[in-house]
Amino acid sequence: MTEGQEAAAKAVEAAADAAGNWARAGRHAGIAGAAIGVVAAGAAAGVAIERLTVGRGMRRKARLALDAAGPYGTLRGTPGSAIAEDGTELYYEVDEPGELPGKAEKGERAKGSKADRAARAVQEAQGGFRKRLLAVLGRRATAPTVVFSHGYCLSQDSWHFQRAALRGAVRTVHWDQRSHGRSARGHGQIDGTEPVTIDLLGRDLKAVLDAAVPEGPIVLVGHSMGGMTVMALADQFPEFVADRVVGVALIGTSAGRLSEVAFGLPSLGVKAFHRLAPGVLKALGAQSEIVERGRRATADLFAGIIKRYSFGTPKDVDPGIARFAERLIEATPIDVVAEFYPAFAVHDKTDALVAYDNVPALVLAGEKDLITPADHSQTIAELLPNAELVCAPGAGHLVMLERRELVNEQLVSLVERASATARSSRPARA
């Protein structure tokens, strides 16, 4: 047996062991749990080809090198916290206008360090956006605060490029949804008193707005689950939206019908997936330690899955950005994945969209999004009279990373439109 063949054999054996862990973790899900083991073992053979030429040690070093070289997710602002209705602490950060890019890192970075690269990346990402917004907004009291809500299994850091583009020009708030990022685990979920619902996330957003943006106009930006959170806010607090919100961006999201999404699977497997997935995830969440070991052992396999469902053209994505997406998703524990998943099947906020009828809206989708398909965004845009629908060619679910310049351009345009709305609606002076 050659060295390469031996490496491949070991790779398959290791992944098969991990697959067994997944199957054992899902034993309470019966056939569905066993099916996960079979799928994982089969997928192990698929990644073995790569392992013929690239050893595990080299792949690990490559991941560490990408983590060290990429400045993505390193931008930080003034921290704050809001308390949700069940006592859960929700973490947020504020970037104030007028602060120069990289100011937070000044005096703390050496030339060529990760922080220094992060600061330079901010400047590159901003391009002309900062000057453009400052020319429009100046220091007007009517300039809105832009509040970003991230998606499922992500964190506020997923908005890295948009944060960089707006930084210093307009006040922004970035928060982590409950059980994600730096926010605390949901108290109601830990003690089993309340399941996760999209309505609950909408009330969480209201708590963050009350704490971080107690006054002034607001532009809401939501991606995927974050977009659903923005819809849930409107559903439960329509008067607040009418009084305070002057613009909304719904990116790669859906107002409902998620139980019909095929996820790129063959038609025969779609119904089975939707039927079995909640139970399987619940069983896996109950055996989180075993599952997390399986995730680590099959890191290459999951990296491939993440790329497929995150990006429309994975081969063209910068390896550093692809690795950044992996880190964001890997950071979400399997029991949190399981807690949130059932909420999507019953999500329906179509009627709530009426609350955003009178404000400028951006509805943006990736053409090849397998999780919240582009036709869901088209449906949303058709219901919003002032919506601009943008479909990013060839992009997938993490469109704000994959087509960052397009998304940045569209967000800056939205802030400009929203600022005009805020000025025109401001009461005239006596």
Automatic annotation (TrEMBL):
<keyword id="KW-0378">Hydrolase</keyword>
<keyword id="KW-0472">Membrane</keyword>
<dbReference type="InterPro" id="IPR050471">
    <property type="entry name" value="AB_hydrolase"/>
</dbReference>
<dbReference type="InterPro" id="IPR000073">
    <property type="entry name" value="AB_hydrolase_1"/>
</dbReference>
<dbReference type="InterPro" id="IPR029058">
    <property type="entry name" value="AB_hydrolase_fold"/>
</dbReference>
<feature type="transmembrane region" description="Helical">
    <location>
        <begin position="31"/>
        <end position="54"/>
    </location>
</feature>
<protein>
    <submittedName>
        <fullName>Alpha/beta hydrolase</fullName>
    </submittedName>
</protein>
<dbReference type="GO" id="GO:0016787">
    <property type="term" value="F:hydrolase activity"/>
</dbReference>
<keyword id="KW-1133">Transmembrane helix</keyword>
<keyword id="KW-0812">Transmembrane</keyword>
<dbReference type="Pfam" id="PF12697">
    <property type="entry name" value="Abhydrolase_6"/>
</dbReference>
<feature type="domain" description="AB hydrolase-1">
    <location>
        <begin position="146"/>
        <end position="409"/>
    </location>
</feature>
